[in-house]
Amino acid sequence: AMKMLILRSLPLTLLFLSACATSQAAPPSADEAGFWRIMDTRAMGSHSFIKKHPQWDGRNAVIAVLDTGVDMGIAGLQKSSDGKIKVIEARDFTGQGEVTLFEAKTETIEGKKWLKSDEGKVRSYEKLSPQPIDGKWRLGFLLESRFQNSAVKDINLNASTNDKFAVLVAKTKKGFVAFVDRDGNGELTGAQAIQNYNEAQQSFTMALSDPKTMTPPLTFTLHIDDATNTVTFHFDDGGHGTHVAGIACGYGLMGRPGFNGIAPGAQILSLKIGDNTLSGGSTTSDSMRKAIEFAGEWTKKHKRAVIINMSYGIGSEIEGESDIDQALDDTLQKYPLLAAAVSAGNSGPGLSTVGTPAAAQLAVSAAAMLPKASAEAMFGSRIDQDKVFSFSSRGGEIAKPDLLAPGIASASVPRFDHRDIKGGTSMAAPQLAGAHALLVSAALANKTRFSGRTLKRALMDSAKPI
After folding, report:
1. How far apart are CA 326 and CA 292, in angstroms?
2. In the listed set 201, 234, 267, which residue is the last one of a domain according to the structure?
3. Which residues contact 174 (CB under 8 A, 6 or more apart)?
4. What predicted TM-score, i.e. pTM, was given to this entire model?
5. Fewer CB atoms < 10 Å away: N or C end of the chain?
6. Residue 150 contacts by C-beta under 8 Å, 6 or more apart in sequence?
7. Do residues 364 and 402 share a domain?
């Protein structure tokens, strides 16, 4: 009771997994020693935890990254440590990538057949496989002009920002499939059938004029919704979500063996809530609600533990009582296998600096620290001990944040993003999401019953004051 009182009363505590105190890790290789200095997996004890229990590395746990999207084409986010695909679901709750479909009509021009709608036309559809079982095609267009406020304005690097990419959808024997005009020339010869990402985990890039010298900036997936007559493209044109995902559970980041996130065995649900055509990849309450509920329903359907990572938030004057705080608490209460790690905010110490939804009672809110090793490796600064970042929100009306974790890292970013080092409580939250995943692996291996609440209690009780 005294320990819990101390941890609750002190706004900042350093998560420290119990295996750290009982295992003696072998001296790291030179390469590995360098990696952990730029993405610290040792401050929380996760490195020694996995050294002692290699199978307890997050496998069988799922981390739902509610962010700007996750680029699953990047090294480190393709496979998990057990060989399974890393990103198993990709959805966009912002509407940024949504394309409306219209029933296409046939037209013959100069002896060639075309499918057209009011937005445009495509040809060479007759030999696509599979063909629609009802003979009907639906046609829509992803307009590059919609990316004008995005970090990526030219998605196929052809020095034009007004291209349009046709997407042709058909109902087939194996369900709905889409064919994408990847080079934007209105020609579908050789186009491959693409299913919803959760069905076949297919991803693709737009075609480039010179693939040998050019690198596609974005990886796309799609989701066809028959009920709304839409197809939604998922992609990360902000970079923030891909970075967060790498910290939480990357495996072989940047193609370097041994350079892993906290829980390299965990898998990912990429639930996009940040619209990158808005300032800072802003989100809305509606996007957050839908993504949070989706994560909860996913745990119920698949009977697997899911840890929400939300490195998102805004200031709150009614800490713990905002609509999103309450919505997150309600969802965590409703789904026992759901947990959440949320960034506390970057507003520094003071009243009402902990943001929303970090103030949700059942969520674990993350504060950010600068580890000694990272200070030296990244800033050339020698400090006596790990320090709380000055920007990290803390103090005020409620006993938040809950736990402290490293808040700076070099991790995965999409190909267009050259800032692999990012800092903030956004980088601390995925460390804690990964820690949840490690405990899920351990609990499942030992056939120990758990819930989102008991995971939080275990982390809080195994933390140490700083």
Report:
1. 12
2. 234
3. 130, 195
4. 0.91
5. N
6. 237, 238, 276, 277
7. yes
Measured between alpha carbons, how far is 339 from 335 in angstroms, rounded to an integer?
9
Asked if residue 401 has a cis previous peptide bond (ω within 30° of 0), the answer is yes
**What percent of the chain shows pLDDT beyond 70?**
92
Mark which of 188, 214, 234 sits at the end of a domain. 234
The amino acid at residue 140 is G
Q: Please give the span between the terminal C-alpha atoms of the chain, in angstroms, as a whole number.
A: 19
Say which residues have a Cβ less than 8 Å from residue 33's Cβ, sequence separation at least 6.
none
Centroid of chain to Cα 452:
19
Q: How far is CA 213 from CA 122, 157, 324, 418, 464, in A?
A: 28, 11, 45, 17, 50
Closest CA to 72 of 214, 222, 192, 191: 222
- For residue 320, what pLDDT is reported? 67
Q: Identify the CA nearest to 157 among candidates 202, 240, 91, 215.
A: 215
pLDDT in tens, 237-282: 999 999 999 999 999 999 999 999 999 999 999 999 999 889 888 8
DSSP secondary structure letter of residue 185: S
Domain enclosing residue 50, as ranges: 2-94+237-465
171 and 223 assigned to the same domain: yes
Q: 246 and 218, same structural domain? A: no
Q: Is the bond preceding residue 357 a cis peptide, omega within 30 degrees?
A: yes
Q: How far apart are CA 458 and CA 313, in angstroms?
A: 25
